[in-house]
Write a structure and sequence with these properties.
The strands form 2 sheets. This protein has a 6-stranded mixed β-sheet, sandwiched between helices. A 4-stranded antiparallel β-sheet has the order 7-10-9-8. The protein has 12 helices and 10 strands.
């Protein structure tokens, strides 16, 4: 008799991702079990159902593919006893057979709001852990439900098609572009919880996930249920599908903008307004955004309204003055050229 369907589903998702990782890092040997230095894959685990299901699937699948499996939990220090919770997660991961396993504490700032600040601190800690252990990849437990919530949050911000593309199955910062893998983006949250239940895996329910003070919590417990009541079942699946379609379109437009950028710069490297004007708006605005980021504007603080203001220097020139952007970056039109620089 095989495993419960929920357990089989999460194991299959992890197996596919591990195969992808091995394909990205092929070994000279024909037998993966004979690798002299088998790749290390870490699971980021909060102790919640999604990440515990992911950890159990990784612990099961990794040895069968000749992959080392470890885990890391991040203590955000936002709740009393968070250090004890982190210690419990470390113990559970070790009981699953993961090694190395560590807990890392972070200080959460305030920039961008509590949710964004916690996310930034968490990814910085995961990057540091991956580099310290020489990990090839870090697995994250985001599910299809998380993806749907991310799409709706992007829609509410009005930040364009890239915001609607949600979370990528594979992502990472420059220099480690394929570090983060999300095996569960096609699985719903209930499947992960069921997998934990049938395996008798203890899970921790973060009280922040039910706290209406947090935008994502309100969306999860009020917004999405209201949409399903009004539109019927299938909203989550439709939003996740929208994310993938939007990502495909956004990737194509990003590639177009990357190819077009050199053609709209003069010999000194300055952007020429007339040539920018001739481009489709979606391509032009991508070039403007990239130029602003290269000048020092933080990507996370650069919103569509900022780029629209800069774009008006191209499409609606009426002698406007300097446009102030995040990161003390300024944009201005000078002699038919667009200058974006530190102010």
């Amino acid at each position: 008799m095989g495993p419960h369907p929920a357990v089989a589903a999460i194991r299959l998702a992890v197996r596919r991702v591990l195969h992808d990782i091995l394909n990205d890092h092929p070994a000279p040997e024909t037998d993966p079990h004979e690798r002299p230095n088998p790749p290390l894959v870490l699971v980021a685990c909060s102790g919640g159902a999604d990440s515990m299901a992911l950890a159990s699937a990784l612990a099961f699948e990794a040895p069968r593919l000749g992959v080392r499996a470890g885990g890391v939990t991040v203590d955000h220090g936002l709740q009393p006893g968070s250090d004890l919770r982190a210690a419990e997660v470390v113990l559970r991961l070790r009981e699953l057979g993961l090694d190395p396993v560590e807990s890392t504490a972070v200080a959460v700032g305030r920039e961008g709001g509590p949710e964004a600040a916690a996310r930034d601190a968490r990814y910085a800690a995961l990057d540091a852990a991956a580099e310290a252990h020489g990990a090839t990849a870090v697995l994250l437990g985001h599910t299809r439900d998380d993806q749907a919530e991310t799409v709706l949050l992007g829609l509410a911000r009005g930040s364009g098609i890239r915001s609607l593309s949600g979370m990528a199955a594979v992502s990472g910062r420059p220099g480690a572009a394929r570090r983060y893998r999300r095996p569960f983006l096609q699985l719903d949250r209930q499947t992960a919880r069921k997998a934990c239940m049938v395996q008798s895996l203890p899970v921790w329910d973060d009280p922040h996930n039910a706290d209406p003070a947090y935008t994502r919590s309100r969306l999860r417990h009020e917004g999405l249920p209201a949409l399903e009541k009004a539109l019927g079942k299938g909203v989550v699946e439709a939003l996740a599908r929208t994310a993938q379609l939007s990502r495909d379109d956004a990737d194509a437009l990003d590639a177009w903008a990357g190819q077009a950028e050199s053609s709209v710069r003069d010999a000194a490297g300055l952007l020429e307004c007339a040539k920018l004007y001739a481009l489709p708006p979606a391509v032009r605005r991508r070039i403007l955004r990239r130029a602003a980021i290269e000048a020092g504007a933080p990507a996370g603080s650069l919103f569509a309204r900022h780029i629209e203001e800069v774009d008006r220097l191209i499409t609606g020139w009426r002698g406007q003055g300097v446009i102030n952007l995040p990161g003390k970056v300024v944009a201005q039109r000078q002699g038919g050229r667009l200058v974006i620089r530190q102010g």
